[in-house]
Amino acid sequence: GERYEVWRTNPYAESADELRDRVKGVSAKPFMETQPTMDALHCDIGNATEFYKLFQDEIGEMHLRTAAPPPAREERRCWRSTLDKQLRKKIKL
């Protein structure tokens, strides 16, 4: 949960790239710029996609397809709730 907290709260007010480095991101693909301080669960899909990639090992299951069309709102909501559930389990909220 520690890296998730760093990602979510961005305590050092870093740029998205610096933040990704800090949480040991593995993806070289830049995500859409958002306010890095926004909660990862509630910001745009680019950030959520990046978050999924960063934490796929820990989260276990990946709910993304590469080279897919932009997801529908329902699908995004589904991802978000899945991610939220997994994270709650992971960090025992």
Offer a quick outline of the entry.
InterPro entries: RAG1, RAG1_ZnC2, RAG1_ZnH2. GO terms for molecular function: double-stranded DNA endonuclease activity; histone binding; protein homodimerization activity; sequence-specific DNA binding; ubiquitin protein ligase activity; zinc ion binding. The chain is mostly helical and about 90 residues long.
Tell me what you see in this structure.
Helix 3 crosses helix 4 (73-91). The protein has 4 helices and no strands. The protein is mainly alpha-helical and 93 residues long. The chain has one domain (2-91). The chain has helices at residues 2-9, 16-22, 45-59, 73-91.
Radius of gyration: 12 Å
Distance between the termini: 10 Å
SS content category: mainly alpha
General form: globular
Strand residue percentage:
under 5%
Mean pLDDT figure: 58
Question: Biggest sheet, open or closed, and with what strands and sense?
Answer: none
Helix percent reads: 40-55%
Low-confidence stretches: 25-43, 59-67
SS element count, helices: 4
Domain V(D)J recombination-activating protein 1 ZnC2: 2-34
Protein name: Recombination activating protein 1
Pfam families: RAG1_ZnC2, RAG1_ZnH2
Domain V(D)J recombination-activating protein 1 ZnH2: 36-93
